[in-house]
Amino acid sequence: ELELAPKIQHPFHPKHPLTLLPKPPYYWGKSWCRFCRNNIEGFVYNCFDCLFDLHINCALLQASIAANFPNSLHPHPLFFIQNHNNEVEPHCSGCQKSISGPFYRCSDCAPTFFNLPKECAELPLEINHPCDQKCGLFVIFVALTGITPRITVIPNQVEDWMCKICYEEVDISYGHYRCPASRCRYIAHAHVVEQIRIGELMVASEIKHFYHDHNLRLTFSGKTKDDDSPCDGCTRPISTPFYRCKQCKFFLHEDCAELPKEMPHPFLKHLLTLSNSHAWYGYSTCRACHRVYQGFSYRCYEGDCWFKIDIQCMLLSDTLKHPSHEQSLFLVHNNEGTSCSACFMGLCSGDVAYRCMKLCDFRLDVGCATLPLTAWYKYDRHPLTLTYSDDSEPSQLYCDLCEKERRPNNWFYYCADCDNSLHLNCVIGDLPYMKLGNKFKRYRHKHPFTVVKNIWNCPPCKGCGEVCNGQVLECKESESNFTVHWDCFWRLLEPLECYSTQV
């Protein structure tokens, strides 16, 4: 049996003591509890001078003043409630979920309350912006407080705020993370996923990406089950941390998963939209580097422009300091009548290239400017170095892989330990940015072709008769079963059917 004190000093009402009474002392006979807002008809703790009343159960809650609660989240003093009775059914003003454990409450916000569970109150006030680490995201709790949201909305303009993690609408009346930059529309639910800290960066542990049907989970392991599985966004090798799908072989670098849906390009007046090549022909050709690629790209859909560029080229800086040249190079458009100083291929009027603005007129097309400085060759245990000139005798200028001649001024890969020199394409391959296992179909061939990588026992190409090593296309059906280079694939059969299977 509980023995109640006739008078108590309560943190909800520190000015005066509360007196235990058998019923509310008012002539109308009823009152309401200042904590749970429900009616009181029986025993009550009362301050008659202030007309302040508490249910017995509410008065006995373990509560204390939260002295160090951030003013940026709420302007009034808050109480920390260790537990609550069944009569109180609070909902979080930040995440809108029901509160079952310890929470903070403001009794000054009438007629409703500001409630915040302990786990929401412990969210960091600021996290790094996932797309731009120079820009921070701030947690904002605005519900039921009388605080004006710190978001500028243009009058008479309807604003739809979409969470950039779960892609559901954000009700800005409740707690959320928001970038304070006026032109940045990055916003995220405060509760959408659990948060994981990598160093000082908070990242989502699970996301729903708009180009994949299943949820993607953040992974910290060093390898995928298949070491040849690249990122499905940029098609480059996977590195940690990355997002993966547990239901299928789909992988995304963290940076690729957080690419914005639209981006401007310095040489186009329209915004480019993030697209997936699998939604088209299963592949695309980048207008900047002219490489065939799969995965994500940025495209222009205005009129008959149809400009498309892979995401690596889209994110290139407008200046480049390349070890092949002393001066800085600048990204320029319209290079008609010139050629690349690395491969000596001619540049067209619409091509993008890096150019030295000095009198030397040194230029690099985007394909050569983005070549890896170090690469690996299957028969050499040492790394190969990108090399820019060769002073050897002309009779010594040949590729140690294909055994064809090399031009003296063309770039090549070289191993000083083994004295191996290789053509750029013999190292990089014909299809470095195509995902192994993907299938394509041609009108004049009833079976699909599969992207494969041949290393040992390379068969001859059905088109040219040369050895098919590296990334090639293969028909695996027993009745035909042949292999073909990508370039020969185009000459061998009629145009590509709009069909592709992603693995």
UniProtKB/TrEMBL annotation:
GO terms for molecular function: zinc ion binding. Keywords: Metal-binding, Repeat, Zinc, Zinc-finger. InterPro entries: C1-like_sf, DC1, Vacuole_Formation_Reg, Znf_PHD, Znf_PHD-finger. It holds the Pfam family C1_2. The keyword Metal-binding applies. The keyword Repeat applies. It comes from Gossypium trilobum. Transmembrane segments: none annotated. SMART domains: PHD (SM00249). This is PHD-type domain-containing protein. Residues 396-464 form the PHD-type domain.
